[in-house]
Design brief:
Radius of gyration: 19 Å
Structural class: alpha/beta
Order of helices and strands: EHEHEEHEEHHEHEHEHEEHEHH
CATH architecture of the largest domain: 3-Layer(aba) Sandwich
CATH class of the largest domain: Alpha Beta
CATH topology of the largest domain: Rossmann fold
Bound molecules: 2'-monophosphoadenosine-5'-diphosphate
Number of strands: 12
Shape: globular
Number of domains: 2
CATH superfamily of the largest domain: NAD(P)-binding Rossmann-like Domain
Strand content: 15-25%
Distance between the termini: 36 Å
Strand order of the largest sheet: 2-1-3-5-6-4
Length: 277
């Protein structure tokens, strides 16, 4: 069989997903295509979906601005995606569409691939910076991975409280300044806000003065590759974890949902880094 795969969103001409999935298709010896289906937000989404459903499609990714909108067109939504409230991967099984969210599990997979020891020590203390959609998903995936101490720091503490409210793990909600003061307590610090994304944005969301050298600092931003917070962490001697690896692992999980094949991504890491640099 030939897999008909694709991506819906807008604008998506520069998306890296076709590059990744075409490599997966080639490496897995599966026949198929991964197409870009740009849907202008000015058009009626319901009409566009109606048209789209008439084509043969085995699976597709969903990106901005449709990750929430797509949900009402699905037959099933996986529990993780329901909790997050956003779908980035849809599989067509015998005409029924099921939605998943592979972003946060992908992120956690990328972290585990690089730092497996952090996943075996359940005493690992994590600080999540940010309380938007990305932070919420990553928080739940970390809880599912068994971590017991995950604190959340955010400019607006109310949003962080909302995430922590439904959780049974130990979560302190912090302001950004109190996180700076307590930074030395954390083994893993994960930056999930948009701060650092704009070119020439010359700051890290928090000061890393109190960072301990044995910590891992991770940023989910993938362009620029090395954000200010990662540069600051590196100069303090800490380990750094790049955002582009999340891109590879969320795609790995999506491809697995569509084809049942888990493709290795290690050899793509440097290639993707070169593309983004
Ligand atoms: P996403 O869904 O991609 O996570 P989002 O829901 O818009 O994006 O969340 C953005 C996150 O970045 C939030 O944690 C936001 O903080 P607030 O909840 O206080 O708004 C954070 N953020 C964005 N710009 C920021 C800035 N200039 N300083 C500090 N935090 C910022």
């Amino acid at each position: 069989m030939s897999f008909q795969l694709g991506l819906i969103g807008y604008p998506i001409k520069h998306s890296l997903s076709p590059w990744i999935h075409k490599k997966f298709l080639r490496a897995s010896n599966l026949e198929g295509e991964y197409s870009i289906i740009e849907i202008d937000p000015g058009l009626n989404f319901a009409d566009q979906m109606e048209k789209f459903k008439q084509n043969r499609i085995d699976g597709f990714n969903v990106t901005v601005p449709y990750k929430q909108k797509i949900i009402s067109y699905l037959d099933h939504v996986d529990e993780e995606a329901q909790n997050i409230g956003a779908v980035n991967t849809v599989v067509n099984r015998n005409g029924k569409w099921t939605g998943y969210n592979t972003d946060s599990i992908g992120y956690v997979r990328s972290l585990e691939a690089k730092y497996p020891e952090a996943f075996t020590q359940k005493s690992t203390r994590i600080l999540l910076i940010g309380a938007g959609g990305a932070a919420r998903g990553i928080y739940y995936s970390l809880v599912s991975s068994g971590f017991k101490q995950i604190d959340i720091a955010n400019r607006t503490t109310e949003s962080a409280e909302k995430i922590a409210k439904h959780s049974y793990v130990n979560t302190n909600v912090l302001t950004l300044t109190s996180a700076e003061r307590r930074l030395g307590r954390y083994d893993i610090i994960i930056q999930t806000t948009s701060v650092g994304m704009k070119p020439n944005e010359d700051r890290s969301i928090i000061s890393l003065e109190n960072l301990k050298e044995s910590s891992i600092v991770s940023d989910i931003i993938y362009q620029p590759i090395k954000t200010k917070i990662l540069s600051a962490a590196e100069s303090k001697g800490a380990s750094i974890h790049f955002g582009h690896t999340m891109l590879l692992y969320q795609a790995q999980y999506a491809f697995e949902i569509w084809t049942n094949q888990k493709m290795p991504v290690n050899d793509m890491d440097d290639q993707l880094k070169n593309i983004l640099e």
